[in-house]
Amino acid sequence: RIEKFPDDFLFGAGTSSFQVEGGIKEGGRGIAVHDLKKPKKGITDFSVASDHYHRFEEDIELMKELGLNSYRFSISWVRILPDGKNINKEGLDFYNRLIQKLTDSGIEPIVTIYHFEYPKALVDKYKGWLSRESIEDYVNFAGILFSNYGDRVKYWLTINEQDHLLKIPERIGFPAEMTGLEYERNAQTANYNMCVAAAKVTELCHKMIPGAKIAPIINPMPAIPASNLPDDLIASMEFNELSAYYMLDLNCRGKYSPVYRKYLEDRDIFPEINDDDMKLMKDNPPDFIAVNYYMNQTIAVSSIKEIALRGKEVFVSEEVGIYKIAKNEYIPQTDWGWNICPEGLKIAIMEIYNRYQLPMLITENGLGAYDKLENGEIHDSYRIDYISRHLSQVKDCISLGFPVFGYYAWSFIDLVSGREGMDKRYGFVYVNRDNDDLKDLSRIKKDSYYWYKKTIAERGQDL
Ligand code: BGP
Fold first, then answer.
1. 3-class DSSP state for residue 111?
2. DSSP per residue, 195-234
3. Is residue 404, in this structure, part of any structural domain at all?
4. Which superkingdom is the protein from (predicted)?
5. Residue 369 bridge partners (DSSP)
């Protein structure tokens, strides 16, 4: 087993624009579809978030002190193109200053082009990803980023977690009334359009930025069979096919896998495809695969013989007649019911590499928890435990020869969680605010911040 992580290993942490920036009405920013979603009672919206829009310089100083050699963030589509078409110079300037400050600080920027922030203007205009016109608008957006930042940004990520994005209607601008089979069919069209768009952007990136590397981002939840019943193993394999690989197969091979194709055809929801698009995807595979890993699933066969629609609940979807989620006495859960299974990260790395033979970057992994501020300190030993156990699995994979070249904890700083606001915190740096009280928004280093600093400095020798 290797003693330390390699010298060029990227030790990073990440955020996404709408979850961390705030300032949603500033700098000429337009409206993104999720801005319109009303949060649950008592949960904050994204209007102030962690105020990174005003404090990014202070935040980058904290990254530098921590010793991060890379930082993953996303660029808000609606800051750059508020109406989806016309460039907003203030938005360009903001990210220009951010990227400059990172590179001046010796921190490698890695940019997610599209992390859940879709312009409302494009939904109003042509129903967003349901229309083929969406492809050109995404390519146009990416091209603007490549020409403005390609001199300093070498690593690009196309679409954050397309596999999960498609299950969250408000993030793709589908109307709430759209449900059932109609939703499923439209989600397949959106998925296909996104894959074509990602292939075009991959091609463009290689043309515009020599030496740049670009990847799709997947959030796999590798399945463990619930028992030694062979049918549970088959159900687990089908779960992986239907929930994760369908997207990567298009991105990396320009193909629908047989299981996925059959699944769609049985439901009469296979999208309209054409040979030129499939060829485009096949000819423009990514340079690596970005993996966001939070949890595994334990899967049992579902014996009810009927065709059901996929559930709308993002993380516990079941397919009646194919698979169901089972309990696992060996796997504890977070306060939000997410399985904690570091070995699942190793399983994901091994399976993805064996299927695609591409290098991998772990672009998200972290623990959402209720943190308690006590006398100006946050003792988050639970987060240290979670991250160290996952990083240790990454070290194991590298020792075995799997090409993983970086790890980004989620998140660098506390930010607004997708659905739980500021209650569910992920950062190494605490932001002094609650859901309903902005307090002073000051930054406080948690115990995990000091732990990660030491781990990076020693290149993970204690893991
Ligand atoms: C990933 C997203 C992130 C982040 C994370 C944690 O799916 O890419 O943006 O939100 O999950 O999820 P949550 O905030 O719901 O706990």
1. strand
2. HHHHHHHHHHHHHHSTT-EEE-EE----EEESSS-HHHHH
3. yes
4. Bacteria
5. 425
Residue 87 near residue 144, CB atoms below 8 Å: yes
Which residues surround ligand 1 with Cβ inside 6 Å?
16, 19, 160-161, 164, 219, 292, 364, 368, 410, 417-419, 424
| Contact present, 226 and 303 (Cβ < 8 Å) | no
Domain assignment present for residue 248? The answer is: no
Query: Which residue in 108, 238, 364, 420 is the catalytic one?
Result: 364
The DSSP symbol for 444 reads E
In a domain, 315, yes or no: no
- Could you give the number of structural domains in the chain? 1
Length of the chain in residues, anyone?
463
Q: What is the pLDDT of residue 317?
A: 62
Q: What is the pLDDT of residues 64-83, one digit of tens each?
A: 999 999 999 999 999 999 99
Distance 303 CA to ligand 1 centre (A): 32
Rounded to two decimals, the ipTM of the complex is 0.98
351: containing domain:
10-223+288-300+335-457
Residue with tokens 């995404």: 138
pLDDT of residue 304: 58
**176-206 pLDDT tens trace:** 788 888 888 999 999 999 999 999 999 999 9
364 counts as catalytic: yes
- Rounded to the nearest 10°, the torsion over CA 122, 123, 127, 131 is 30
